[in-house]
Design a protein that fits this description.
137 residues, alpha+beta, four-stranded antiparallel beta sheet, 25% helix
Length: 137
């Protein structure tokens, strides 16, 4: 059962490459959020790759930026922990950080009974992409 839950949690915040777009989905209670950036915006953010040496934005800087945004944009998220800080290459050949947070089971997001997850993209030019409520169709 624990393995199934872990795989489900990972699938909820894993980035997905739609046509011309990088998307990560997350959830707080029953509300779905998406973090999305277009291929052109991602490609304009940086031409860095691992062969060029040190990243223009470090891992700790990316984490701090994402934590500051989380505290500002989602003050009712509850007590949380860092679920992951990943430097990843997109299908478009550009690199970015994916920073995911998970609220703790004992102090979930306000108004919910379950832990929530939120994902931010931190681009290598220092810009950030925040989660937004997913529109129902």
């Amino acid at each position: 059962m624990k393995i199934y839950i872990a795989l489900l949690l990972l699938s909820v915040c894993d980035p997905v490459f739609a046509e011309g777009e990088l998307i990560a989905t997350s959830r707080i209670g029953e509300v779905l959020y998406y973090t999305s950036i277009s291929q052109s915006e991602l490609q304009a953010s940086s031409d860095w790759n691992p062969e060029k040496g040190v990243t223009p934005v470090g891992q700790l800087e990316a984490l701090k930026k994402a934590k500051d945004l989380l505290n500002k944009e989602f003050p009712d998220f509850g007590l949380y922990r860092v679920f992951g800080v990943t430097l990843a290459e997109s299908d478009f050949g550009t690199w970015h950080y994916r920073v995911a947070f998970r609220s703790t089971p004992d102090r979930p997001a306000k108004g919910t009974q379950r832990p929530g997850m939120l994902t931010y993209f931190i681009l290598l030019n220092g810009e950030s992409v925040s989660p937004m409520i997913q529109k129902r169709e």
